[in-house]
Amino acid sequence: MKAYFDLIKQRIAELNEIHSVHWYNGQYERYDETRPPDLPAVYVEFDNPVYWQTAGGGVQVAPETTVRLHLVAKDLDDKPDKLWELGGLLHRHMHLWPVPDDDTIMTSLMRSQWEWRQYDQLKVLIISYKTALYDYSTVPHTTTVLLRPVIEKK
Q: How many angstroms from the chain centroid is the CA of residue 107?
């Protein structure tokens, strides 16, 4: 999963408005204990478990995987307007992003859900995307080809 996370993290890091990107493990729900650095932050969460299917030749695909981006910002205002504005920026940057052809490890992200929560002064916007993940890690990097030359006599 690290390769998928790294790809998403690299894309989000292009946005100057987002100060940090991390794996999601409930950080904002335990804010008093964890004190996340550099807000606004995005925490990336993948389905757990991810359901893989064999596509043949050693390739596996997880065709309906959900990736959740938890956008977290600290805001004293009771309205979510600033968070939604930042969420719109993040969404425009991620939705249908042409994923670099790095062995085609995932398809473009398609938004499927938008949910917001509030934890005291922390505002959280969870944007869920659907994608397909591909795993080529067991496919040999070389292929053996047997040649049988045919010589024609004239």
A: 10
